[in-house]
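Deliverable D5.2: sample structural annotation.
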Amino acid sequence: MPSEPQGPDAAHRRPPGVDDRTVEALGKLSEALEAVEVARGHLYAFHRLSGTADLTCGQAVDLLREAGHDALADRVEQEVVGRNVIEGRWTFQVVEDYDATYYAAFKDVERAAREELVQGRRHLYEAEMKEDRRTRGARHHEARPPQP
């Protein structure tokens, strides 16, 4: 049986001269970006659910009309169907504004920080944490995937 590769691969090892605080700071920046990614996912879920609600509400209008409730169908259609969720905006516009105003800037800054400080390497903090926490030689605690 071949011996287990030791430590993280080159893409997950800190470059020479990079100190602990720098790795920790980049880890925090990465953690913050992960929170932004989750927030963006929730924003897209909000977009999808709001769109589904609008389409389903339109179906309710049709059913109300079929059941002879024209006045109520008119009210729902006029007051809710197609309504902006925020002043002047549907959810696609909210998503686009978030992406352009905040998300893109955050991604760019995080990437630029990694490029400037650690040659663009990702997840150095996590790779070092894995090395600290794994049980060497134990199955499912390998440093990296087996080499072909």
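Annotation notes: Residues 105 and 124 are 22 Å apart (CA to CA). The chain has a mean pLDDT of 94.
The annotation will be released with the project's public dataset once the embargo ends.
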